[in-house]
Amino acid sequence: MAHKEQVLIRLEGITKEFNGTIAVQDLNLEIREGEFLCFLGPSGCGKTTTLRMIAGLERPTRGEIYLRDQRITDWPPQRRNIGFMFQNYALFQHMSVYDNLAFGLRVRRVPPTEIERRVRAVAQALELEPVLNLRASRLDLSTMQRVALARILVIEPQVLLLDEPLNNFRPGLRELMRAELKRWQYQFGRTMVYVTHDQEEALTLGDRVVVMNAGRVEQVGTPDEVYWRPATLFVAGFIGRPPMNLIPVEYRISEGHAFLISPDFEMRVDERRALIEASSFLPRLILGIRPEQLLIPDLHASSHEGLVRIPAKVDLVRPLGRKLILDLKTRSGLLIQMVTPSTRRFAVGDDLEIAFHPHQALLFDPHTGQGLY
Amino acid sequence: MPKRAWTSVLARWGIVLLVSLITLTPVVWVLSLSFKPPQEWLAYPPTLIPRQPTLENYLVLFWPGNPVGVVSEMVRTAEPVTRAFINSLIIVPISTALSIVIGFLAAYGISRFGAGGNFLPFSVLTTRMFPPIAFAVPLLVYYRSLGLIDTHLGLILMYTTFTLAFSLWMIKGFIDGIPRHIEEAAILDGASRWRVMFTITLPLIRGGLAAAALFVFIMNWTEFLFALIFTSRFAVTLPVQVSRYAGAVGRYYGPQAALGIIASIPVLIAGYLIQRYLVRAFTFGLVK
Amino acid sequence: MASIEVRQLYKRYGRITALQGLDFSVKDGEFFCLLGAPGAGKTTTFRIIAGLEKPDRGEVWIGGELMNSIPPQRRDVAMVFEDVALYPHMSAFDNIAHPLRLRRLPEEEIRRRVGEIAELLRISHLLHRLPHTYSGGERRRVAIARAMVRRPRVLLLDQAFTDLDAKIRQEMAAELKRLQRETGQTMIYATHDFEEAVAMADRILVMRDGRGVQVDEPQVLYDRPATAFVASFLGSPGMNLLRCQAIPEPQGTRFVHADFMLLSPVQLGENREVLLGIRPEHLQILMSPAPGSVEAEVEIIQPLGLERIVDLRTGPFVLKAIASIDLPLQLRQRVWLLWPSEHLFVFDATTEERIYPG
Fold first, then answer.
1. Closest partner CB to A227 (pick from C166, C299, C305)
2. Between the CA of residue C282 and those of B24, C234, C336, C342, what are the distances in Å?
3. pLDDT tens digits, residue range B240-273?
């Protein structure tokens, strides 16, 4: 972890086309030594293609890939010293676990005594010693995952690429395996690049998260940045469960003050005028507020002054145990979702007043989708 | 890079050309043979384009007594091909249709209700486990006592029986591929089993049925052994008829080739008609 | 519309027992949920209610009528399957119209009703397209439309949304709930995802090994789980359960396992093996030791908006706790956990039934 800031892999202007359809477009990215980087996005956003290009399984149509300043765009996968863990693990079912682990070393013509030593060492670290002589086809899923990881670690790769390795697990086990993965990362301290469509996974595992959509990078940032300062409307709507409320508003100047107006509320935004006026699609804007930032104001609490208030009706109640998700309909028919502690009971049809702190609201340009920060 | 691309294109074309040559040569050869006069049938060096093209080989099939040319002279005794042609056109489509219908019903029962347990589907295969000639003698005895020898019905029954194993197994594969839930949904909608079978299952495996039908049709159309043993005059089929163009001095290659060409036409037509269903059969997997 | 009653259902497939004495009843117009892990018997239950399968023993009553000998076509039950089962060779219109055509309704009436339900489910634009062109959510909508168009007495939905993206799943759940409220359709939904269940259900039956474990409103199941299974199954994350020995002390009970030890004023009476339970949101994380606290190490931090789910290792156990993002936590950091006794649960280690609070 010492050289955490050093760049290990650099992608420069990567574009990949398949028969005329663009899978990845003009992607620029630096992967740092020792970090856990997660690619997150809906299916078909180009995340797996990017991973396969890093591994050398696909060749970019345009752009270059560098490994420690060495151009490796044309290198075949074997030469790159990169470990790739496939979604279905691709273990050799007909071989013993030992042979599975030794395979990569034998192919690389490592001397037998060295193979023995390295296989044993990895097997010990991942607690695979009891199953070394079993056939791979007889293992359970979680052991298979460990074997798949061991098989990669044993060749001592510069970087580990993982393509949705937890997809086949049922929900409970999935969380357990996720925790395991994170533990391994600090145990082995390797650079890991991880592809997933599951945001919880990405936010939990990643030191940084790359959010992709339709072949483009929407945002690269820490889990906190991606969650609280989404760069684009797509990220705002994609991350968070339930996702951020995105409310169309109109910008207006009245009596020297700047306002955002919606049929349900209005809000003064004098201090953000400069940012707003740089937007391309005025007077229209999108206001974003997280469901957990909405609250039900207490009439007498002084901390609730200056709140933006919205009258609404309860449309659906989802008691998740310690929290509730309320679907609310405003007077103008807008749907707003809110997360609130389950200490209070709600019934469908209840009239409520909800509110938020104006400084917590994010603003987006509806035309470019960019956040106005 | 461009240089490599150029050579690879050349190599690809070379391979395509070679393969087409190997597969098409016999067809072209037969086609050419069917227009050759007798002296060219076995001429050496062989000719690809007949030096003296003639239609005689074709004419003689239909009018064997017609006294023009050398070939007519040679095959004067043969029956006109018309009867064999009509026989094949009766026997083969009917037995194919029967085989597919019975095969579908049986396959449905086996696939959906496990009819006959584990044994039935395999027992059906026994008809294909022995060389057909092993069945010939006992069947001959049965057929004689039932008066089925040299009848259309006789061959229809035989062809239906011997292709049943094939159509059953092939159709069963297609039915197995259709999720049960689709049928159950229709049952809950209020449809009866029969109705489900015909309005849901059948349309979904139409392509598969077409493929199976085409294969069975070809098998029956070209069947020779049983047709030879179980027919003599009345119910002779095309493959048997082909074998009749032989005399004391040798085979009459010209008329045989001409008949081969004519006999392939119905298969080509059937294949063409069925083609669009075949495409459906192979793309159906895309629709979950 | 009708009520449903399931009495003492038993079903075996060869050596596998699918149901062993399942009982429950659904009220007319209710949204009922079967919640259980895969293999708990949910699908079998549905197939028996629909009549696609015969129970070995037990009765199914719909609208006060015994159904056991009535064939599926005449039960007036509709079902949406896990794999949706649209007719791939028919357009959405024909798919939805199919049950009406079977009932020989006049074509005009069919067109009107298909149009209505399509409007309600917002699939009018799909009516003339074939199923393979639909998205996952659209396939579900068409399947639900087909099931609802004939206004069946009961609508069964077998994990109908499971393989959808989390976001679309949530939208569909909300929409189905609204639809159910507007139409008053009796619905039973089977799922293994508790979030899906609580989003829709008026009442939930938690199933395990072919039996009902507990049936109640979602919040009640959460607040007063009858067994350790219910406690761990409901909640995200579920309740922490620690298998340990409960040793009575003058001031309360000592819970011990290996090098884990917790002293609590809870009174249990006898020395026994128990499952000690506490919800993640009730574990308090302290940055320095306090009386009654237990030392732990931070293993994983999962950000979740204003909160984080923290995995904490203490002795032989890994516990989950909810921490505010204001609490400065680092991986591998040492912390101390407080266990408020008013939020402790104790379950019997063998029967898994709740013994505290009684």
1. C305
2. 80, 15, 13, 10
3. 988 888 766 677 888 889 999 999 998 888 888 8
Q: Is the domain defined by A7-238 classed in CATH 3.40.50.300?
A: yes
Distance from CA of A153 to the nearest CA of C (A): 22
Contact between A13 and A28 under an 8 Å Cβ cutoff? The reply is: yes
Shortest Cα–Cα distance, A327 to chain C (Å):
8
Chain B partners (3+ C-beta pairs within 8 A) = C
Residue A88 has what pLDDT?
75
Judged by DSSP in three states, C2 sits in coil
What CATH number has the domain spanning A245-364?
Answer: 2.40.50.140
pLDDT digits (tens, 9 = 90+) for C47-59: 999 999 999 999 9
One-letter amino acid at A21 equals: T
Residue B109: pLDDT band (50, 70, 90) is: very high
Q: What number does CATH give the domain C240-356?
A: 2.40.50.140
Mutate to test the interface with C, among A320, A329, A338, A344 (most CBs of C within 10 A): A320
Listed by number, the residues of chain C in 156-185 with a beta carbon closer than 8 Å to a beta carbon of chain B are none
Whole-number average pLDDT of chain C: 92
Residue A204 with chain C: CB contacts under 8 Å: 300-303
Q: Write down the pLDDT at residue A259.
A: 93
Task: Say which DSSP state A87 is in.
Answer: T
Nearest CA to C6 out of C40, C52, C72, C50 is that of C50
- Give the CATH architecture of domain B81-286: Orthogonal Bundle (1.10)
Instruction: Spell out which residues of chain C touch residue B188, defining contact as CB-CB under 8 Å.
Output: 50, 52, 72-73, 75, 77-79
Question: What confidence tier does A2 reach under pLDDT thresholds 50, 70, 90?
Answer: very low
Q: Pick the closest to residue C71 from B162, B193, A142 (CA basis).
A: B193
Mean pLDDT of B40-58: 84
Chain C: touching chains (3 or more CB pairs < 8 Å): A, B
The model's pLDDT over A276-288, given as tens digits with 9 standing for 90+, comes to 888 878 889 999 9
Give the model's confidence band at B128: pLDDT under 50 very low, under 70 low, under 90 confident, else very high. Answer: confident
C175 φ/ψ angles, rounded to the nearest 5 degrees: -70, -40
Say how far apart CA B220 and CA B217 lie, in whole Å. Answer: 5
Q: Considering chain A, tell me which residue range(s) the CATH 3.40.50.300 domain(s) occupy.
A: 7-238
* Shortest Cα distance, chain C CAs vs residue B169, angstroms: 23
Query: Is B283 a residue whose pLDDT tops 60?
Result: no
Measured between alpha carbons, how far is B172 from B165 in angstroms, rounded to an integer? 10
**Cα dist from A324 to A1, A16, A187, A341, C193, whole Å:** 40, 43, 38, 6, 16
Instruction: Verify A-B touch: 3 or more CB pairs within 8 A.
Output: no
Q: For residue C126, how far is the Cα from the chain centroid?
A: 31
Domain ranges of chain B: 2-53, 81-286
Inter-chain touch B185–C79, beta carbons under 8 Å: yes
How do the domains of chain C map onto residue ranges?
4-227, 240-356
Cβ atoms C274, C244 nearer than 8 A: yes
Contact with chain B for residue C129, Cβ under 8 A: no
Helices and strands, number each (H, E), in chain A:
10, 19
> For position B249, what pLDDT does the model report?
65
Q: How confident is the model at residue B156 (pLDDT cuts 50, 70, 90)?
A: very high
Lowest mean pLDDT among A190-194, B48-52, B61-65, C148-152: B61-65
- Domain C4-227 class in CATH: alpha beta
Per-residue model confidence (pLDDT) at position B1: 43
If residue B176 lies in a helix (H) or strand (E), which one and from where to where?
A: helix B152-176
| Interchain pair A203, C234: CB under 8 A | no
Predicted pLDDT of residue A284? 92
Q: pLDDT exceeding 90 applies to what percent of chain A?
A: 54
Q: Say which DSSP state C209 is in.
A: T
Asked if ipTM goes beyond 0.85, one says no
Could you check whether the bond before residue C357 is cis, i.e. omega within 30 degrees of 0? Answer: yes
